[in-house]
Amino acid sequence: MYDVVIIGAGVSGSASARELSRYKVNACVIEKAEDVCSGTSKANSGIVHAGFDAPVGSLMAQLNVKGNEMMEELSKELDFPFKKNGSLVICLSKDDMPKLQELYDRGRKNGVKDLKILSKEDVLKLEPNINEEVYAALYAPTGGIVCPFGLNIALAENANTNGVEFKFNTEAKDIEKIDDGFIIKTNNGDIKTKYIVNAAGVYADKFHNMVSENKINITARKGEYCLLDKTAGCHVSKTIFSLPGKMGKGVLVSPTTHGNLIVGPTSTDIADKEGLNTTRDGLDTILEKSSINVKNIPMRQVITSFAGLRAHEDNHFIIKELEDVKGFIDCAGIESPGLTSAPAIGIMVADILKEKLSLEKNPDFVGIRRGILDPNTLNIEERNQLIKEQPAYGNIICRCEMITEGEIIDAIRRPLGAKSLDGVKRRTRAGMGRCQAGFCSPKTMEILERELKLSMFDITKCGGKSNIVVGVIKDSI
Q1: Which of the residues 49, 208, 235, 312 is marked catalytic?
Q2: Which of 3, 127, 302, 464 is deepest in the core (most CB within 10 A)?
Q3: What gap in Å lies between CA 427 and CA 41, rounded to an integer?
Q4: CA atoms of 198 and 356, how far apart (whole Å)
C-alpha cells in the first residue's frame, strides 16, 4: 500500500510530487497518458502572472504571488527556461481608467511588488508596437515567461530522482473507500493507498464526485493560440494583456522563452474534455483581438496553431482534504494562474500530507536537477571538445531548432525519459520549429527505435494509437 497516490502528472501533480519527495514517503503518481505534461499543462500561454488579477484575499491570489516569487530561484535549481520580462495591461480609453486603477489597487493588496501605472508616452517608449491610441497601462515588472514543458518535466524528474514512482498509461477508472484508505481501480490493476491527491485537471470533478456527496463541476474552457516564427519574437518584449473581462484576461501577445511570439487565447466553454481542435472562428478572433492592443503583428509568420483546456470551477482553486472523505485531497479547479501558482500549490499539498502522515524529512533529498545540455550555450572550444568526446552532439537532427542527436539521446535516457515524438519535442524542441517536424521526424523516430529497442511500427506521436508507421508501401502494391 502506498502512503500517497497522486492522480495526474501535470504541473500541479508533479509539483506536489516534488515537494512530497522532501519527506520519507512511499508515493506514486499515476497518469493515463504516456508522459508527463500531456493534458492542461502542455498547452497554455507560458506566462508567470504577477498576481494583480485574482480576488483580494483568495487562495488563488496568495498562491499566484507566492509562486511568482519562487519561480526564478526554482528555475535555477531545476534548470528550466524562465525570464522575468514584465507585463503591461493596456488601457485604450480614459473611460477605462477606473478599471485599470482597480487592477493596480488589487495588485497592491495582493502583495505584488513595484506596480506602476504608465502614461501613453512611457508605454510607447517601452513598447513601440503598442497601439498608438493607448491611454495608459499597468506595468508589472515581476511578470515573467516560462517554458511550461520545461517546468513540468523538471518537477517530475526531480520528484522521481528523489524516490516518487510514476506509472504511465495508467488510467484511474474508479475509487473505492476502504477502512485504511482507498483502492484505485485502473486499467492496469488495483492500487491501494492511504491518501489520494486529485490533480486530474479537467477530470478532477470526476474523481471528486466518485467519493464525495458534495459535488463539484469542472468546465473545460478552451483557449486557442497562434505561435509565430522566431523572426517575430521581438515584436514585443513584454507580455501584453487587455483589461480583463468576465471570461478572463483576454487575448495576449507575448514573447516566449525560446524566442517565438505567442498570441491568444480565446475563451470558450465546451462539453468535450478532449476538445483540442482549433477553429476558423477562434483563429479569426485571435487575429482581431490581438490587433486591438498591438499593431502590425506579422501573422503571416504563424508556424502553428493549437488549443488547450483550462479546468474552470467558478474562478477559484480547491486545495483541501474533503470534509466527508478523509484522506482524499483535492487539487482541483487549477486554471490560470495555475502554472504560476504550481510551485506554491506543491508546497500546500505536501504540507497537508506532512501533517496527516506525520512525515519526517528525507535526508537524501536532492533539490538540484540539470536539464538537457544545449550545445548552443557553449563556446566554440567547448563545443568542439564535446563533439570530440560525444560525436552525437555534432549530428544536427532538427535543422529549424538546431537540435542534435546527443540532445535527443539525453531526452530519452534521462529520468522519465521521452518515449514518443511529442516526448522528444517537449524536452528538446526538435520538431517545434518552422517546418513543424516535417524534416526531423524520420530521424527522431530512428533514434527512438534504437534507444528504446522498439519496432518502427511501435513508435508513436504521443502514445496510445498515434502510431506513425502503419505499413510498408511495397507490401501493399
Answers
A1: 49
A2: 127
A3: 14
A4: 16
8 Å CB contact between 230 and 259: yes
Superfamily name and number for 87-141+219-309: D-Amino Acid Oxidase, subunit A, domain 2 (3.30.9.10)
Binned at pLDDT 50, 70 and 90, residue 248 comes out as low
CA separation for the pair 419, 440 (Å, rounded):
16
Secondary structure (H, E, C), 105-141:
HHHHHHCCCCCEEEEHHHHHHHCCCECCCCCEEEEEC
Share of the chain above pLDDT 70, in %: 99
208 as an active site residue: the answer is: no
Give me the mean pLDDT over the 188-215 stretch. 97
Please give the Cα distance from 290 to 22 (Å, whole number).
43
Domain boundaries, the chain: 2-41+149-218+315-357, 87-141+219-309, 375-452
Q: pLDDT by residue (tens digit) across 17-65?
A: 999 999 999 999 999 999 999 999 999 999 999 999 999 999 999 999 9
Residue 192 Cα distances to 90, 195, 217, 249, angstroms: 51, 9, 26, 41
Each residue's pLDDT tens digit, 124-146: 999 999 999 999 999 999 999 99
Query: Looking at residue 246, what is its pLDDT?
Result: 54
Which among 350, 284, 444 has a CA at the least distance from the CA of 17?
350
Three-state SS string over 31-61 comes to CCCCCCCCCHHHCCCCEECCCCCCCCCCHHH
Cell of 270: 465546451
Which band of pLDDT confidence, cut at 50, 70 and 90, is reported for residue 311? very high
Task: Give phi and psi for 61, each to the nearest 5.
Answer: -65, -45
Homologous superfamily assigned to 2-41+149-218+315-357: FAD/NAD(P)-binding domain (3.50.50.60)
